[in-house]
Write the structure tokens for this entry.
Amino acid sequence: MGRRSRGRRLQQQQRPEDAEDGAEGGGKRGEAGWEGGYPEIVKENKLFEHYYQELKIVPEGEWGQFMDALREPLPATLRITGYKSHAKEILHCLKNKYFKELEDLEVDGQKVEVPQPLSWYPEELAWHTNLSRKILRKSPQLEKFHQFLVSETESGNISRQEAVSMIPPLLLNVRPHHKILDMCAAPGSKTTQLIEMLHADMNVPFPEGFVIANDVDNKRCYLLVHQAKRLSSPCIMVVNHDASSIPRLQIDVDGRKEILFYDRILCDVPCSGDGTMRKNIDVWKKWTTLNSLQLHGLQLRIATRGAEQLAEGGRMVYSTCSLNPIEDEAVIASLLEKSEGALELADVSDELPGLKWMPGITQWKVMSKDGQWFTDWDTVPHSRHTQIRPTMFPPKDPEKLQAMHLERCLRILPHHQNTGGFFVAVLVKKSSMPWNKRQPKLQGKSAETRESTQLSPAGPAEGKPADPSKLESPSFTGTGDTEIAHAAEDLENNGNKKDGVCGPPPSKKMKLFGFKEDPFVFIPEDDPLFPPIEKFYALAPSFPRMNLLTRTTEGKKRQLYMVSKELRNVLLNNSEKMKVINTGIKVWCRNNSGEEFDCAFRLAQEGIYTLYPFINSRIITVSMEDVKILLTQENPFFRKLSSETYSQAKDLAKGSVVLKYEPDSANPDALQCPIVLCGWRGKASIRTFVPKNERLHYLRMMGLEVLGEKKKEGVILTSESAASTGQPESEVPEEQRAGEPNSPDAEEANSPDVTAACDPAGVHPPR
């Protein structure tokens, strides 16, 4: 097997951070050790202990605490989604309800500690408890708390994420205008943090920045899409490439093509994962030094590719869930050395007050797979040169080593704050990488074009890691960025690309792994589909209609999506070199019987917070009591709602409506965050189209205890409604409602052809 294909295989397989708590968190591998019925794995590995004691990464006198911590299950941690306006309400609900119920509780003889905020995470938005994930799932006393966590996670309001995994996005210091690349993004918990930071100001529906989240594994990309979708952002794009040779993209700036350089890059590389032993306990028996020796080259290639695409003045965070200096300091030292001063390590010691960490080490040794130590490259026999490389050793020159400031790296040890093990380094780019500075040789046009095409299409798409020696050769890197952009522009202009269509690349230029994606087709300005929508919802003149797209080139457009202006620019200028898995949020869905109404498209809850600022009609302001009724009953008659709501609804034509709740500051006991819901104004009733978990979220925020759901009637039972003995009224006849989805969760269906699944309003709109 060649080095390139081996690198691709390692990148797909060596990802122990898969077990980050994304939704239910953890992979099957992690669960098997706790509850799969397999023999208990003995948490011993003599080679591991010998290796790290020799490297002295643990302070003297703390080795016993270090090993004891590794043998303990990892505590459960959660993070409240920071950019949503109701983050404070969730925090209030957690503190005053669920955490109080945990006081003085014992589970399996273990006293449950009340969750505490992570001291270093801003605004008390991250919490940890001594409960392991196993106890949290299986204990009857904690069932209510567990249901809350699962439901709120699915709604995107909290993330079940390991504490140390939250550190890299914080150190990126993201601002809403930043262009961000997440190079190895799946399963996506760090990506969601980055999206939150872009949307720090909820009053701005389209931040100038965006996140491009990449992963080499096609299947994991869909996990990434699921994670990102929970945040309903128009500023996220998921792509599928080998990170070590991810294509160099271009954008249109005032009519000319320019190379896209990122302001922030997260480089959370595949690693051996010995920092995850507390949750991935099979690492105990599988750990060897060979893992890190095999991954070092791939990690360095990914970090190098990231540094190439970083803008001058930009910040890149390199991180691993490994404690091994071969994967950590050795990669950073080699990258700094080859950058020739273009990169430097940032001092971030005061950026996360409260976080305990150890400084990076400046001296280390390399152990071969059979246990032999080497202190420098000169002592490695020729027979070991394929296994051990010179970049794995610290620089020999003391002055050069001191100038690198490797002590600015952060190593998180498990026993210091009851976490997993982790390594983080923050790099700042001072100037172009040396191989991008060199002047191109005098060559003919054909050679120039050949150089530009080497930068992106076939190589990266086939998932082959770039060869560092080729990266440094003048023939590959001598061409300046301007020449690259112009050559790429010429190539594109010679093609017969359709305007506004960003489809999968031609098979000759790019091998497609996994599913073949539908194209991304932007709605033309003269499309007759849009004026009725614009008129029906009285859209503001500032509405960015050019950012609307569909996923089909033929037939009826069933769903309309929206992306930010900047992502539109990226899509339109790079469709030949990018494999895009997903982008945009759904804002409108076609009604099956839409032609009967003034507008064939109804609003989608997924994109309502983005769309709402531009809508000027069909808005009904509702009270908190109205919201409770609308979320607990499927088709409440007008008479059940307040007179103010009825007076607004009675003159509206049938069709989609916006239901808006505005908090009353004079009533501090009421819900203090605004709510925007999608609804349908029927003949004599109003219904909401809100996914189940989002319904439950709003009800909890209003202080209602959700007891269950009567699926037949489509009614959610709460602590208030359970006291009522009357049968809930329903307008839609039983035989008619049988064909309608029980929950608007169905609007999340992926296929635009399954109208009944994605369009409950269109199947049987209420009377």
